[in-house]
Structure formats: structure tokens, C-alpha cells
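Example record

The entry below shows one chain as it appears in the dataset: sequence first, then C-alpha cells.
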Amino acid sequence: MWSVIPGGHRPARHIVRWLRSIQELAEFQLARKDLKANIWRFANAVAQCPGFDPASMTIMPIWQRLQERFGFPAKSISNYFRRLRDWGVLAVVATGRTAQFTPKSSGRTENEAAIYVLLEKAEDQGVEKSSVPVPTRAVNNPPHARAGESSNPQMDAASPQPSLKRAAQRREVNHQLLDRTESLWDPNATTDATTKRERREAERLASLELQFRSFPLQRISTAHVAAICRPFFRAGWTIKDILHAIDWRPNTDARYHHDGAHGVGNTGAWLKFRLGKWARHDGGLYRSPSQKREAERSQRAAETRAAAERRERALAERSSYTPPTVPWRERVARIRQAQLG
């Protein structure tokens, strides 16, 4: 059994601890709502299967029982077992086999069920390893320091968010940001691509780089940031444009007095509100700062070209001018004589 347990894992101490460890997984918390419900129902069904050995934390779930009692299709059972193995909460000790593949020397004529061992993380999961510090140190006021003040402990910072999904999102984002060695996406480049897959990947990398440059956005998932910023990415906005839109009001030089680092409970709604100010009433978007600068450069270049063309025409006309051969006094005299009769 120990030969199949991966590093950093150990057999779960209790079946309940195993179920709780699944809930604390970032992959489980960030999964789709329907997949999350099906995986949780499947894990509870596996925990109720016979053949459980609490000493070794091994279990022999029978597929026929899972199909008849809990209604799981065979293909779904295979997919759920594979997903639990990939998440590191389950390991295969012995694979199952049908009776036709059982050696005759064993004398067995029945199907053999697979044996799995239930796993949990070996290190302590009580402290979240994240680049987003959440201090929880308490400060005791000295007695009689100030009259009328309570000497009860007071927290010098907000307590961690109780939501397992939010904690999983923060761990997942910071795990990717801590491994960042260079810019995930050019902050001055757009996310244009030829195929849908390439465009989605470009939007994901741009959103992750946006989270690296904006600390409050690290509280939500990268997919959430990409979903909010997707209309702006497809309108030709860059990362720097979105960062400008988060801190500045549109068409003015007024900066917001409050940022999202403190006092914001729903970061996604805060980001959507800030970016929503840059949307017109007809559903379109205002031009981004980079687009405005590009339009101004194009206008200045067009004006410079027009002025150069005017100068060239004036020089050409001046060079093609031929002075008259008749003196001006004689020309004036001829004009007057023609007017007099």
C-alpha cells in the first residue's frame, strides 16, 4: 500500500477527515457547480461502500452497487475515480478484474473489486501558504491605560474569509503568481487571436497578469476576472487601459478616492462597477486611453502630412512661375488705353 502513496500524502486518519479534505481542495471548490455536487455525492457513496478497513484506510467499492443503489453510470464512475486520483485523495492499491481474467490456479470464479486507499495531505493545512498575508494577531490593551475602554482583546486586522471557495481561489491565484518569472502578457498588447482557443488563452493570461498588477483582484479567481474584462479585451483594450479604468473616471482627470484593497467585500462586483463606468448607454465602450493616444498620434501625423503637402504645392507653384517679358509700365499703359477706348 505504501508503495502507491505519492509524496506529501498519507492515509487519511478517518473517513470524515477524508471527506473534509476533499472540500478543502482548490480543484473541488473551483469546479463547476454541477460537477462539484456530483463529485461530493460520489465521494459520500464511496464512503458508504462495504469492504472498508479503518486500520489501513483501504476500501473496495463495487461498481455494480454504485450503479444500482446510487444511480451512477459506469462511465461517470470511471471519470469520478480518475478525477479523485488526479486530485491526490485516492490511490489504487490493486486493480479489479473480471472472472475470465482470474488465474485458474487461484480457484476464484468471481469478479474481484479494485482496492483503493483514502489519502490526505501529510503537511499541516491549517496555515494557508499564500502571498496574501492575513494577520490574526490580537492586541491586548494594558489595564487602566485609558479610562472607559475595555481591556478585551481587539483584532488589529480582519479575520480570514470563512468561505472555502474564496480561500481556494486565493491559493490557486497566488500559486500561479508566485511561479511568475516574467510577464505573463504584454501590458501594452491586445488579446487578438485567430482562433477561439487562442483568444481564450490570451484572455486568461492577460487576466492573470492583471491580478499580479492589481492586488485586490487576487481575491477572486482568474476566470472571474476574465469574464468581467472580456468585453474590454475584445474591444481592443490593454492591461494598462483596464488598470487606468479601475482607478480613474471616464473622460475626466478625476481619480477615485477609494481603492479595492480595504472595505470591499465583493471584489467581482467592485470591478464590474468600476469598469461599467466606461460603458456608454447604447452598450458600447468608450475609447481606452491607449486608443485615444493612438487617435491623437494619427491626427497629428495627418496634420503634419497635410502641411507638408501644402508647402510642396507652394514651392512647385513658385518654381513654375515665369515672369512677364513686357515691363509693368507698358502693361499698365496698355490697360488704361484699352479702358479709355
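Notes for this example: Residues 125-161 have pLDDT under 50 and may be disordered. The chain has three domains: 2-103+110-121, 164-276, 290-340.
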